[in-house]
Amino acid sequence: MLTADQVTAIVPDAASLKAGRGLATPRKWELLGADEEALWGLAIGSGKNPYQTRVSLSDLATKCSCPSRKFPCKHAIALMLIATGEPASLSEKTRPDWLKEWLESRAERQEKSAAKQAAKVDKPVDEKAAAKRREKKAGRIEEGVDLLRQTLLDLSREGLASPTARDASTWESLQRRMIDCQAPGLATALRHVTDEVLRHDEVETQLAYEMGRRFLLCKSYERRDQLDDSTRAQIEELIGDGPRSEEVKSLPAVEDHWFVAGRQVFERDRLTTSLSWLLGRRSGRWAKVLRFAHLPSTVAEPWPLGSKVNTGVCFYPGPGPNRALPMDDGQVKLEKPPAASDEGFEALLSRYAKSLVANPFLRSLPFLIELRPEANGRLADRLGKALRWSADEAESLRVEAITGGAATLACGEWDGSALRLLGLADGENWVSLKSRNG
Amino acid sequence: MSENPLIATSLLGASRLKTLPPAPDPSLQPVWDRLSMADPAAAVLEALAMDRAARLAGRKPQEATTETELSPPESAAPLTELAVMALLRMLGGEYREVLPEWLESASESGRILPPRVLPEALEAGRRDRSLRAPLAALMGERGRWMARRHKAFSWVLDESGEADWDADHAADRLAWLKETRRVDPQQAVVALTESWAGESPDFRQAVAQLAADDPLPSDEVWLETLALKDRRQDTRRLATAALLQLSDSAFAQRARDRLRGRVRVSGKWLTWNIEVEPPEAFEKAWESDGLSAKPPAGTGEKAWWLQQIVSMVPIAEWPAILEIKEEELFTLSIDSDWKDALLIGWIESARNIPKLALPGRLIHYLTELKKWPDKAGVKFQVLASLLEVEPDPGKSLEVMAKHLADEEMTRLLMSYRRVIPQSTVRAVVRKTLSRKPVTITRPEGRLLALCVPIEAIQSELEWLSRLDELSAPAEEFATTLEFRRSLFSSIS
């Protein structure tokens, strides 16, 4: 199960893709093979011996004996492109030793690291030292939260029209302090102030609301002991003190057929984040799955947009919509997009209002709704309601072409003021509207 | 200053604030009442948080406008994902040479572009005129619906022949002209004659091209009185070609009369010869038929007049003029003094009216010609353009492959850019590719790959794989073949 989109999404650069395409022909290979889990081939190179190229299909990990430092190298890219374009030429079915060894060593490594994790959890920890560390960290976070709360109060007293409040450096230095205080969630929130709020057309209103919302967060954190578990977990995650992934994975998993409805890739500080919205077809629950990679690496997505994945996911605690960790790579099937959705904009907004009550810090909510573009920069649903749509010209044109004026199933996010689209049904295809190499 | 009193308060600062502004909505009043004014700065921030959440939660959707025009349903199926991806690569600049072939077979498949790639296709047609006709055939209802909504893409509608003489677009008007020429040629002539003087030079040339492609007896008058006197040389050349194809036209008649009597067949020692008698003087009247008196540097006056006279008679009319059989024409030897002038005239005539140039026979003749007249243009280009109108190019290619130098044959194939018989591929292309050092460039390697018929791609690739080492152009040839093969499997 591999699509060309997945391959183009993980190439390190355009030159690698071009070189990979040049090699994506059986003529350049002494041997080509594939089974359910892996692709392999012997690439004819300039040297005496061919290069041994291997791809693990579950996570698109690759290994090649060529000297390239690019990752994945052009041979691995070519091998994957052959698998998407002319899979019949991957005729060899018996795994060569060099592939077996690699797969085994990978499995071994994964086992070892799992065992290590388990050992970490099981290890009779020095309770005293651990408690001391926790206490120290909690102390620092409290220090950070308090600093932010005080700063917000000072600015409120002084008035938000003051030059200090409008000066990006105020927020930048505060942001650095939050990182020192081990509160990365707050640092991200402050970055949002410098990146978006201060540049907003209605900066007066936006800055005031943003500060009110952050003040509430600080106050909620200080009173977290009086909150219910779910809300407290949400607050802690927003501060940047959420549960560790091992803790999340120990929670009961939700098994479902997950429709990979929307995906967005963004890059910040040399970290690439791929955010996927999954909709459980049975549970009706939305799961936010994040995958990360440090540049120059790229995020390898084992699940193509529009596919259906059979697996269990563990949700982070909180009122939602929640981030989730998949248990494994699941069984992936490409199939027709779902035929319809019951939701309309009215229902979406009421869902949004309910979510806000449980989580006033909510930024945006995913949806799957049949909609069409209107001439005035809005989207309309089947029930005759319309909402503002934020899209650039190229996206507007593509959505117009795909819908042809008729309501069409789409996935996107509502952030309280505008809709943003991520994926859209084009006949039997599910089209990404935010893909990196689109 | 904001209209929201709470925002206004937050801007001014809370240091001297005694009471909060009233709750923005009665439903928020209970919450408002609970906010402590012990620290007004905190109260303002908390009120802001409430206000924000309440406003976000209270949003209501607006009423939608009704869609006035839905895209009509498609009757054709979309092209496959692989075919579409290949198109996007070519539109992006890779294997651009293969694009015409892809477009042709895509439209033969009867399938259309899926809506998601319409933005790229519409934009490509907007930029490149030569892609418009074939792309328009793949647009489907959705593409035409988009074109009706965006002025930048209206070319789709032009190509689909929204025939209208009074429209703004030249393409609309040409479509009308084409259609009207078919059903009521006289009406087309009337409309054209009336507007000719006011038309743009480009439009006039396009109209002359219509006539040259398919001349009608009713065209004679306007061609002679208007197009032949046009200021643009290309328009005059096309008008000439159109008139000469109308063998009953006065113009064609005069052209034949100028030649008649100057050439005749005579026998000497069992060989038959074309005897030539060039004009002694340039007649003033010839000028209005497009002949010029003054030769270019390096050409004698008489030779110049002769070659112009020859160039204005379709070669197909020569057997009648010489009173011989068609197959005898190119067996005759030519009066050596005037041979070059006659050949240049023939080649020029073939270039203007290739359909009436006995292309099969002429190709054969020119291919075997010992000395190509320098002033007749580039040999392989002349031959390639004749090959395009030759109904049986296979046979001509065989002859050419036998007689032309490899180099010349290769250039010819690259300019021809169409599929040729596999035997010619074997004879010519293989030789070119295996030569050391290789004499063609990488882009030329790609062009050469366009000549290989689809069914022969596999065997050519196998042949390549048996070579020790591939030169860069041969490599380019091979990858282009592979690309073409993948295109065809994805379209069919």
Describe this structure in words.
- The complex is a heterodimer of chains A (438) and B (492).
- Chain A has 438 residues and is α+β, with helices and mostly antiparallel strands.
- Chain A has four domains: 4-113, no CATH class; 130-239; 248-334; 345-432.
- Chain A contains 13 helices and 16 strands.
- In chain A, helix 2 (14-23) packs across helix 3 (74-85), helix 5 (127-158) packs antiparallel against helix 7 and helix 7 (168-180) packs antiparallel against helix 8.
- The longest helix of chain A is centred in the N-terminal third of the chain and has 32 residues, at 127-158.
- Chain A is globular and about 75 Å long.
- The mean pLDDT of chain A is 90.
- In chain B, a hairpin with a 2-residue loop joins strand 2 and strand 3 (271-276).
- With 492 residues, chain B is mostly helical.
- Chain B has 26 helices and four strands.
- Chains A and B meet through helix 5, helix 9, helix 12, strand 12 and strand 13 of A and helix 1, helix 3, strand 1, helix 4 and helix 8 of B.
Integer count of domains of chain A: 4
DSSP E strands of chain A, number: 16
| Outline type of chain B | elongated
Uncertain stretches of 5 or more adjacent residues of chain A: none
The helix fraction of chain A, in percent, is 40-55%
Multimer state: heterodimer
Strand order of the largest sheet of chain A: 13-12-11-14-15-16
**E-strand count of chain B:** 4
Strand order of the largest sheet of chain B: 2-3-4
Order of helices and strands of chain A: HHEEEEHHHHHHHHHEEEEEEHEEEHEEE
Structural class of chain A: alpha+beta
Order of helices and strands of chain B: HHHEHHHHHHHHHHHHEEHHEHHHHHHHHH
Number of helices of chain A: 13
- Overall average pLDDT of chain B: 90
**Number of separate helices of chain B:** 26
- Describe the main β-sheet of chain B briefly: 3 strands, mixed
